[in-house]
């Protein structure tokens, strides 16, 4: 997992609430066993029409949001089933950071395990960011995890955000639960050796 420190990217505004994980990555695409390749199916039912052509009205298909790497959405983002494929699809598509007024708990935790930074900001700040992203082509934000700050190039949006210190430190170092465990691998091996020796007595 890649560390997350500071990221500057184009903002895609998705002014919808209760976006669930089945919207993020529909269930028919969950057959892959790799973590990669899910980006092409992100928001599939919104991005494509029934005949398979891109839906021109969907935000991610609009030219001014091409290459967006920061998604700003409504409250309760990531609700629904606990599928870890949702952050996989977002990351594979190119999103490094998701900003919303609130997140579903399991989705929020899964983001940290997969290198995606979820940032909670007040609704009024979300509204300002969405309006700016709609009005300004190529509107960008900078998200600084180390300083826990978010700002835009005009400094019309400058705000801090709260984050659990343990999650912050883990993401700064690019460590998921497996990576954290491997940091004490020598202790685990020592314990196993000691435990094995006792069992032979």
| Cα separation of the termini | 42 Å
**What about the largest sheet?**
7 strands, mixed
Helix share bin: 25-40%
The average pLDDT is: 90
CATH evolutionary superfamily? Aconitase, domain 4
List keywords for this structure.
alpha/beta; 7 strands; globular; Aconitase, domain 4; 201 residues
Please give a structural write-up.
With 201 residues, the protein is α/β, with parallel strands linked by helices. It has a single domain (6-175), classed as Aconitase, domain 4 (Alpha-Beta Barrel). The chain has helices at residues 21-24, 44-47, 85-93, 105-113, 123-135, 165-173, 177-182, 185-199, and strands spanning 6-14, 70-73, 97-100, 117-120, 140-144, 149-152, 158-160. It has a seven-stranded mixed β-sheet. Helix 4 links the parallel strand 3 and strand 4. The longest helix is centred in the last third of the chain and has 15 residues, at 185-199. Mean pLDDT is 90; it is low at 181-188.
How would you summarize the topology of this molecule?
Blueprint: E1 6-14, H1 21-24, H2 44-47, E2 70-73, H3 85-93, E3 97-100, H4 105-113, E4 117-120, H5 123-135, E5 140-144, E6 149-152, E7 158-160, H6 165-173, H7 177-182, H8 185-199
Parallel strand pairs: 1-2, 2-3, 3-4
Antiparallel strand pairs: 1-5, 5-6, 6-7
In short:
The protein is an alpha/beta fold.
């Amino acid at each position: 997992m890649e560390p997350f420190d500071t990221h500057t990217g184009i903002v895609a505004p998705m002014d919808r609430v209760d976006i669930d994980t089945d919207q993020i990555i529909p269930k028919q695409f969950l057959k892959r066993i790799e973590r990669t390749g899910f980006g092409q199916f992100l928001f599939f039912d919104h991005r494509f029409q029934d005949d398979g052509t891109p839906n021109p009205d969907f935000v991610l298909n609009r030219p001014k949001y091409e290459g967006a790497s920061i998604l700003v959405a409504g409250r309760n983002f990531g609700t629904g089933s606990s599928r870890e494929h949702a952050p996989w699809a977002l990351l594979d598509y190119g999103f490094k950071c998701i900003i919303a007024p609130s997140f579903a708990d399991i989705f929020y935790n899964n983001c940290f395990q997969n290198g995606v930074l979820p940032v909670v900001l007040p609704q009024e700040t979300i509204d300002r960011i969405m309006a700016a992203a709609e009005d300004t082509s190529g509107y960008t934000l900078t998200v600084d995890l180390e300083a826990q700050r978010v700002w835009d190039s005009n400094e019309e949006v400058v705000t801090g955000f709260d984050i659990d210190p343990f999650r912050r430190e883990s993401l700064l170092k690019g460590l998921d639960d497996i990576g954290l465990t491997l940091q004490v691998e020598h202790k685990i091996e020592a314990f196993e050796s000691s435990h094995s020796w006792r069992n032979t007595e």
